[in-house]
Design goal:
The chain has 77 residues and is α+β, with helices and mostly antiparallel strands. The protein contains one helix and six strands. The protein has one helix at residues 57-68; strands at residues 7-8, 19-20, 24-25, 31-36, 42-46, 52-55. Strands 1, 2, 3, 4, 5 and 6 form a six-stranded antiparallel beta sheet that branches. A hairpin with a 5-residue loop joins strand 5 and strand 6 (52-55).
Length: 77
């Protein structure tokens, strides 16, 4: 994530105030979902937890592209 604004569990945004997508699940219990707040920020969170990561939609899109391309495998270890 490229901006200094990225955070985890932003105190100013309640988990319930985020419009979450349906969970995306891979093998086992590895489920996550994307969300968007009224302020236009993007969110990624896991199911079953109130923790999330937030940044601009462009920054999270770049992170997802890097993970899919294998350029961020070191973050998954």
């Amino acid at each position: 994530m490229s901006t200094p604004e990225n955070t985890t569990s932003t105190p100013g945004t309640a988990f319930e105030d985020i419009a979450w997508s349906a969970p995306l699940c891979s093998e086992g219990a590895n489920c996550f979902r994307f969300g968007r707040g009224a302020d236009g920020r993007a969110y990624i969170g896991t199911t079953g937890s109130a923790a999330y990561v937030t940044d601009s939609a462009e920054a999270l899109r770049a992170l997802i592209a890097a993970v899919k391309a294998g350029a961020a495998d070191h973050l998954l270890a």
